[in-house]
Write a structure and sequence with these properties.
CATH topology of the largest domain: Beta-Lactamase
Order of helices and strands: HHHEEEEEHHHEHEEHEEHEE
Oligomer: single chain
Shape: rod-shaped
Helix content: 40-55%
Number of helices: 9
Number of domains: 3
Largest sheet: 5 strands, antiparallel
Length: about 450
């Protein structure tokens, strides 16, 4: 017979363990309650019997035997209701008065309470259920007579039996309730887990757009579902990007390799001068260096996005870094009839990696120089704004349409779909990876005309 699936769940196993633990605790607690109640009842009975014996002895000593017999006779007549029974015998053991048939053999008149088994030969004649242990006490009177007092325990036994019955009901109810709660919790949690498992199975079959259905409870399962859905969104985005990158990389890496191969093939077709061979080799070196640059950029982006880039993180003077890079590229821009203006506040510091930040700023300045028109102006500004430090690079080139602001940060993306523009489409991807690694944010804005790139570091 196949075991029901719910019985294999960790929830049911955990509930069973807790049920056993709770049952043991309840049993111990109720047992202690029963024991302490019995002890208290026995102590009260013993105390009451001793007190009654002392009072009756005092009556016999101070008020005489007739008064004692009067009291015993009165109590004897009420014995059925009060459950107190007496036996008074003379110094020869002959019965004077009482509702017990005989003096128990094991009872000594030492004024100590003992439990004596009551049988028909000594039990009160008007009791039907007379078997059992009764607490008894006996003492000697002044003239040598002996007085016995006992108390029926039938009411106490009834209470104890009822208490045991209640304890059994509580235990059984607790076990049943715990098992029902465990079954209910197991079914509920199993449904939530099945929701996740079914989504995972659907994704395994290729339905990458499937997501975990969240409930309105906003509990830990919903939190897990949200994280898994976010992860699935990222995976789907990466897979989609991978397909796009594969298409782009096929063009960006194949084209320079094809050109190198063609140049070398042409060079081999006929004899050439040493100068011409050097030119072919130089062109091949340039193409191969471009490929190496592309691969290095891909590697740096991957390491940066994964947070695995190994480099020093120090408090760096971003003002000095931007000044040095700005002055370096100002000379490059001037050769192309373009102008870079520096507006950098002194001695601004952030915590970061100098190499990566220099790489990101250099990429932005290279793009600005590439797309700014002749006699155009590029501005590199570094300022503090409230609790943040910002690097702003603006140009007066063609800019980027707003609908492409997010797209251009993806790898190998270019606004020139024909892919004839110089470059590999990795510059802004690297910039974004570096910025996010530093916990900063990058914004693209329209400079009217041109583009304004703003990197904000929170203090």
């Amino acid at each position: 017979m196949k075991t029901p699936r719910i019985l294999k769940t960790s929830v049911i196993k955990l509930v069973l363990k807790y049920a056993i633990f709770i049952t043991i605790l309840i049993t111990l607690g109720l047992s202690f309650l029963y024991w302490s109640t019995s002890q208290y009842t026995d102590a009260q009975l013993e105390s009451g019997l001793k007190f009654e014996l002392s009072k009756l002895k005092e009556v016999d000593a101070t008020q005489g035997r007739e008064k004692l017999i009067s009291i015993l006779s009165s109590n004897w007549q009420e014995g059925l209701d009060t459950r107190h029974y007496y036996l008074l015998v003379n110094d020869k053991g002959e019965k004077i008065l009482g509702d017990l048939l005989a003096w128990p053999k094991k009872l000594d008149p030492n004024e100590e309470v003992v439990n004596i088994w009551i049988e028909n030969d000594i039990a009160p004649i008007h009791l039907e259920e007379n078997d059992g242990y009764w607490p008894m006490i006996a003492g000697k009177l002044a003239d040598g007579s002996e007085l016995l007092i006992t108390l029926s325990v039938l009411p106490a036994e009834d209470i104890q039996e009822f208490t045991l019955f209640i304890i059994a009901i509580i235990l059984i109810t607790s076990i049943i309730f715990t098992m029902m709660m465990g079954w209910f919790l197991g079914q509920t949690i199993l449904k939530r887990i099945d929701n996740i498992n079914n989504t995972a199975k659907a994704i395994e079959t290729g339905e990458l757009d499937q997501r975990i259905v969240l409930s309105s409870n906003n509990d830990e399962f919903d939190e897990l579902g949200q994280h898994l859905n976010s992860m699935l969104d990222m995976i789907e985005k990466l897979l989609s990007g991978m397909r796009e990158v594969t298409d782009n990389i096929a063009h960006d890496l194949r084209s320079p390799l094809t050109r190198v191969l063609n140049h070398l093939d042409v060079a081999l077709l006929e004899s050439r001068s040493e100068k011409e061979y050097k030119q072919v080799i130089q062109d091949a070196v340039i193409q191969i260096q471009s490929l190496i640059t592309t691969f290095n950029s891909l590697l740096e982006i991957t390491q940066t996005e994964a947070g695995s880039y190994r480099g020093e993180w120090l408090t760096i003077n971003i003002s000095c870094i931007c000044t040095d890079i700005g002055e370096l590229y100002a000379a490059v821009a001037e050769e192309k009839n373009k102008y870079i203006h520096l507006d950098i506040a002194p001695n601004l510091t952030i915590i970061g990696n100098q190499h990566l930040l220099s790489l990101a700023i250099s990429n932005l300045l290279e793009n600005a120089i590439k797309y700014t028109s002749n006699n155009g102006k590029i501005e590199l500004k570094v300022r503090t704004y409230q609790d943040s430090t910002a690097i702003v690079i603006s140009d007066d080139g063609p800019g980027i349409p707003e609908e492409f602001h997010d797209k251009v940060f993806e790898r190998f993306v270019r606004l020139d779909n024909s892919r004839t523009t110089e470059g590999n489409g990795l510059g802004l991807s690297l910039v974004k990876a570096v910025v996010e690694l530093h916990g900063a944010k990058v914004y693209l804005n329209d400079n009217q005309p041109g583009l304004k790139v703003k990197i904000v570091f929170d203090d």
